[in-house]
Write a structure and sequence with these properties.
46% helix; alpha/beta; flat; 2 domains; 441 residues; Gyrase A, domain 2; Rossmann fold; 14 helices; six-stranded mixed beta sheet
């Protein structure tokens, strides 16, 4: 049995209203001790009255009552809507704790919803993602997960793994049932090939969703005075970085953030990279090189009005292994028009082709913004393990290992895909066998 917990459900700020949430077996009992009206028998409803501490009235409130399991946590829940003074909130929580509640830990209400089977782990993570969404597109993806659409998209793969594993187990453990399909290495190869392709598609879609959810960290790099700061200002549409004609003006990282066609682009304008005897400038150059290492995208800015030199070639070498877009800035100062080069003018804000190239580079299609997908490192990491387990099972079958050995990797795949939803990793497949083959009759 879980203890009854209490916490403020709205931000801890002065506001018109505040919501205090109480959840647990004793929620009604505790609330009844501090509410001016009788809450027995337990029922779902809305109540107007006072929160009191003995003879003292703390506040006039609206109290909402939910009877488990028909609540967010699956337990009895009381929500108290009070006036939004933190003095009032603290008094109410204090008196609820005095009568038996415990202060909730961060995320504990969502955790109880998970443990009580109201949501799976994908939905639980989506709650936090909804709260932290930085764009409407990221919010929309999180909402799809919260509504269970991402779970529904992954379940068919879990079912296929369970079907194949069940068939192998039945053939091994119940050989006397001759009316059941025979499990063979050929079937394993065929079925795992389909499942591997499905997992790869889910991974590709998930990585696109992860970009929308987390954004892209982009480093703007180049020699001094090629227009890096001007490009940052053009992208974020404000004069954030100082721009002068003095080489080496930018000596530290200047950051900005924009929503680029639904993608959060976290930009870093770096110090110009060159050979320098200036100690402070060299610190900025070292930071710039670290930004290149950490970036998801490097925008390498070259000066279109001047011939490329050894420093430019060094920068090309330094960034060659990164996701990179090379732009030739100051197109307004030159008549050059090489079709293989991307020309921009940060000064005149002529950067639309660069923005389009960024979106195209990461393969974000219009459908991505409304397509449910696994989209955080934990989920994608586990899905990668599922794919690897299936590849191992297929290879074992190709090597003509016995089916009981092939089944080891299939069990791993089943456990790993269950872990995505928050299953406890129980590899007992008996319930799968009987639900599919009716062996008890």
């Amino acid at each position: 049995m879980f203890e009854t917990i209490v916490a403020l459900a709205t931000p801890p700020l002065k506001s018109a209203l505040a919501v205090i949430r109480l959840s647990g077996e004793d929620a009604f009992l505790i609330a009844d001790k501090v509410f001016s009206k009788d809450l027995t028998p337990k029922s779902r409803g809305m109540h107007y009255g006072n929160i009191v501490n003995g003879d003292e009235v703390i506040d006039e409130v609206i109290l909402l009552s939910y009877v488990g399991p028909s609540s967010f946590t699956g337990e009895d829940v009381i929500e108290i809507m009070s006036h939004g003074s933190m003095v009032i909130v603290e008094q109410i929580i204090e008196v609820l704790i005095r009568y038996g509640a415990r202060a909730a830990e961060p995320g504990e209400f969502s955790a109880r919803a998970f443990y009580n089977g109201k949501i799976d782990l994908i939905q639980a993570e989506a709650i936090n993602d909804m709260i932290n969404a930085k764009s409407r597109e990221a919010k929309k993806l999180s909402l799809l997960s919260l509504q269970g659409e991402t779970t529904d998209k992954i379940l068919p793969l879990q079912t296929k793994i369970a079907d194949l594993l069940s068939l192998i187990e039945v053939n091994i453990d119940y050989p006397e049932y001759v009316d059941i399909e025979v499990a063979t290495n050929e079937k394993v190869i065929k079925d795992t090939t389909v499942m591997i392709n499905e997992a790869n598609k889910l991974l590709d879609e998930g990585r696109q969703g992860q970009i929308i959810r987390e954004g892209i960290k982009a480093a703007i790099v180049g020699k001094p005075n090629v227009g890096k700061s001007s490009l940052l200002n053009a992208l974020i549409a404000e004069e954030k970085a100082i721009v002068t004609d003095i080489a080496g003006t930018t000596r530290d990282i200047v950051e900005g953030e924009i929503n680029l066609h639904g993608i959060t682009l976290r930009l870093a304008d770096t110090a110009g990279i060159r050979t320098s005897d200036d100690k402070i400038e060299n610190i900025g150059i070292l930071k710039a090189e670290q930004e290149i290492e950490d970036a998801d995208l490097v925008i390498l800015v070259l000066d279109a009005s001047k011939p490329e030199d050894k420093e430019d070639e060094r920068l090309k070498t330094l960034t060659k292994d990164k996701n990179r877009i090379i732009v030739y800035n100051k197109s307004d100062l030159t008549s050059k028009d090489d079709p293989d080069k991307l020309y921009i003018s940060a000064l005149t804000r002529d950067i639309s082709e660069l923005e389009k190239r960024i979106v195209d580079l990461f393969g974000i299609e219009e459908a991505t913004y409304s397509r449910p997908a696994l989209n955080n490192p934990r989920q994608l990491g586990l899905l990668s393990q599922v794919r690897d387990d299936l590849q191992k099972a297929k290879q074992d079958a190709l090597n003509e290992l016995s089916l009981d050995l092939v089944a080891v990797s299939l069990r791993d795949a089943y456990d790993h895909i269950g872990a995505i939803f928050g299953d406890q990793g129980d590899t007992d497949i008996t319930h799968e066998i009987f639900s599919r083959f009716c062996l008890g009759k």
